[in-house]
Design goal:
The protein is of the alpha+beta class. The chain is built from three helices and twelve strands. Strand 5 and strand 6 form a beta hairpin.
């Protein structure tokens, strides 16, 4: 169960970590509905994203623990703490770009914009539907409310985020609200992501400094193998 929720959290991180804008801080709340009562508290998460030029940092916290991911323009460092267990990995920009390039032949999610609009955290957003087809040929849809005032970088044209697992296709701008459904291990879950605040105040460079002391670190290749294992287990694999 914990691995399922962790996979959801990391996937959401991937979607929220693909913006490039000078001095933007985005605070988001995540709620996973459909979990058994004893795990309901684990389905509530808080995310804070810091963006300054080509530097990015995401801090995620929940009852399970915390995740911190930082990209300093050259290297990504991801740290995870769950119930006192600390692990992490690092990846160079070149490793991530090579990984994304290897996925360019994968079918791109289809993005359909609607005429519906609403304001979220002071930004006018447009509703869009993203349709993806998984390896099992099953179709899944995600509803997003996206603003073009916070733009994606030119390097993100492939639709893949840095270190990302979630592909938002050619979505233009930054999603301030998302809603999707997942079925795992017999559970039908709904995942809701909402933005509570967007700030354009100056961000000190020290925000992007992190220490790996006390963490069991692994390579990017080892991390990808671990994620494949987690995804297989979440789907009921062995």
């Amino acid at each position: 169960m914990k691995k399922i929720i962790t996979t959801v959290a990391l996937s959401l991180f991937a979607a929220s970590f693909c913006i490039a804008q000078d001095n933007v801080t985005v605070k988001m709340n995540v709620k996973v509905e459909g979990l058994p009562p004893e795990y309901a508290g684990f389905g509530e998460q808080e995310i804070v994203n810091y963006i300054k030029g080509d530097k990015h940092k995401s801090e995620m916290s929940s009852m399970m623990g915390s995740n911190i991911t930082v990209f300093d323009g050259k290297k990504l460092t991801a740290l995870n703490e769950q119930m006192g267990n600390k692990s992490g990995y690092t990846a160079t920009k070149e490793e991530i770009e090579a990984d994304n390039k290897s996925k360019e032949k994968d079918p791109k999610p289809k993005v359909e914009y609607t005429t519906e609009k609403k304001t979220i955290a002071g930004y006018e957003c447009t509703k869009a539907i993203i349709t993806s087809v998984g390896k099992d040929k099953k179709e899944s849809k995600m509803t997003v409310w996206v603003t073009d005032k916070i733009k994606t970088p030119e390097t993100g044209k492939s639709g893949k985020s840095r270190g990302g697992m979630m592909d938002l296709g050619d979505l233009k701008g930054y999603p301030l609200e998302m809603e999707m459904s997942q079925s795992q291990q017999g559970m039908d879950m709904k995942i809701l992501v909402t933005t509570s605040e967007v700030s354009t105040a100056n961000i000190d460079d020290s925000i992007f400094n992190v220490s790996t002391e006390g963490y069991k670190m692994r390579s990017y290749a080892e991390q990808k193998a671990e994620m494949k294992k987690m995804e297989a287990e979440a789907k009921g694999g062995k």
